[in-house]
Amino acid sequence: MSFDALQEKILAVKNPTVAGLDPKPEYVPEHIRKAAYAAHGETLAGAAEAIWQFNKGLIDALCDIVPSVKPQSAYYERLGWRGMEVMERTIRYAKEKGMYVIADIKRGDIGSTAEAYSDGWLGATQVGEQSCTVFDADCVTLNGYMGADSVNPFLNTCKEYGKSCFVLVKTSNPGSGELQNVSAGENDTVYGLMADLIEKWGVGTEGKYGYTMAGAVAGATHPEELRQIRARMPHTFLLVPGYGAQGGTAEDVQYAFHQGGKGAIVNSSRGIICAWKKTGRNGEDYQEAARNAALSMRDDICRFITIE
Fold this sequence. Notes:
By secondary structure, the protein is an alpha/beta fold. Helices cover 44% and strands 16% of the residues. The strands form two sheets. It has an eight-stranded parallel barrel with strand order 1-2-3-6-7-8-9-10, surrounded by seven helices. A two-stranded antiparallel ribbon has the order 4-5. The model has no long low-confidence stretch (mean pLDDT 95).
C-alpha cells in the first residue's frame, strides 16, 4: 500500500514534512537563470532548464532529510510542454533519490477522462502491446466534490499499482468556508460529509499502519476543523498545507497526527525553496538555505509531536 511507503520514509528520517516544488523562474537563483538563458535564451525552454537545474539541486540537498516532494503541476504547465517534461524528469529524479512523490494536480473529472488522468499520473498508457508508464508519481491530489465518479478511477489505479491519492476536504485558503463550511443537515458541514465519503471510499485498502489509499487534504490554517477531521477520519492519511507562509503553525498542525507522529505529512513550499532569498548571498547558497529551512521546519513541528 502506498501510504505504508510514505509512513516508513517519515519514520526513517524522523521528519513528517514534504517540500513543495512550486518554482517560478524568479524563484530560481540568478546564477542558475543566467546559465540557462545563455544556453536557451529568455524563452520557455530557458525557463524550463533553469527550473530543472533548481529542482535537481533542491532534491540533492533535501533527499536525506525530507521524505517527500510535492511538485505542483500549475507551475510546470505555465511553461507548456517543456515545463511538463521538467515535471516528469523531476518526479523521476526524486524517486531515484528515494523520495516519495506527490503530484499536486487536483484533478476532478469523471468517467473516461478521470481514467485517462489516472493512467497518465499514476498508472500506464497502453501503446500497442506495450504498457508505458508516464509521470509515475506515487500519489496525486484530487478534487472529489463531483463524488465517487471522480475518485474511483484513481482508486482503481491505486489498487493495481500500489499508489495513493489525497482528496480535498478542508483546504487552507481563506475562502474555503464559502462552500466547505456550509451547513449540511443537523450539526454537520459540507467538508464533514466529504470526510465521511473519503473514509467510505477507502474501505478495504488499509495498509500496515491502518491507513487506506484514499488520503485527505486538511489545511493547517483551520486548526479546529483539522482536529475534528482527524477524529472523524481514523483510517485516513492527511496532507496538511498552509504551514508557514499561509499562517499555519507547528502548534496547529499537531492535531493532524495520531500517536507516534503517524498519519500525516505537512507541506511547505516557498518557505523551503525560497529560503535563499533571506540569506543575502544572492542564491549561491540555495541548497544550504533550503536544507536549513527544512531542518528548522522539522524541529519546529517535532516540538509538539514525537515520531516513533
